[in-house]
Amino acid sequence: MNLRLKYGIPSNSVITIAGTVGVGKSTMTNALANSLGFRTSFEKVDTNPYLDKFYADFNRWSFHLQIYFLAERFKEQKRIFEYGGGFIQDRSIYEDTGIFAKMHNEKGTMSQVDYETYTSLFEAMVMTPYFPHPDLLIYLEGSLDDILSRIKERGRPMEQQTPIEYWEEMHRRYENWINSFNACPVLRININDYDIMEDESSIEPVVERISHFLRQTQLLKK
Ligand SMILES: Nc1ncnc2c1ncn2[C@@H]1O[C@H](COP(=O)(O)OP(=O)(O)O)[C@@H](O)[C@H]1O
Ligand SMILES: Nc1ncnc2c1ncn2[C@H]1C[C@H](O)[C@@H](COP(=O)(O)O)O1
């Protein structure tokens, strides 16, 4: 059944799924898109020409990788706009700067000059009145232990070889980042509150929460 009609979710909605690596964004993107009849916008990991190199040498490749992600996400944003919405997006553009670029700069694996070049480009492209922000950002949160088991279970070699401290640092930063994020409305969902791998129908309460939340934010806009 199309849950979009049942819960009155506007067909032009754009919902972005945020959260740390391995928390379950892609899985949630697929499940929501299927139940709402929406298109998906995914990060392409397998065809990313920098990702493996980046994990092998952060210093050398962090700037290249950020520029690549920014270009890819911006192109996706354009595609979503051209379709007139109706999308679930796997990871928001805001996490690139708010989490990744910032973390690499502060940890010394992205130089100050590269970071400033990147952030000025990001701000010129994204933080303008012309850039359409999503109607809703769903933030998936879970314990570090659960997330580390998911990264392990998924088994991407580059991530397995990365020290646990990297994922710990990212997990901590995500919590701080979401507490001050205000570019669009945020709905926080704990990964223990649904289990779409075992029980497909557990997506319905999530859709219900989205519907309720969107209605509230629309009312506030009026
Ligand atoms: N609700 C869930 N319950 C159990 N395992 C899950 C759930 N969602 C995702 N996973 C598993 O966790 C791993 C990471 O999920 P994924 O959706 O790829 O995360 P992300 O896109 O956030 O990196 C995958 O192996 C996936 O099968
Ligand atoms: N902006 C980014 N900088 C560095 N690494 C990034 C960025 N965006 C995504 N990544 C990495 C993290 C993961 O290894 C893959 C895919 O992310 P996932 O959270 O599993 O969808 O890309």
Automatic annotation (TrEMBL):
GO terms for molecular function: kinase activity. Keywords: Kinase, Transferase. Residues 15-214 form the Deoxynucleoside kinase domain. CDD domains: dNK. The keyword Protein biosynthesis does not apply. The keyword Lyase does not apply. Pfam families: dNK. It comes from the Bacteria. Belongs to the DCK/DGK family. PANTHER family: DEOXYADENOSINE KINASE, DEOXYNUCLEOSIDE KINASE. This is Deoxynucleoside kinase. It comes from Cytobacillus spartinae.
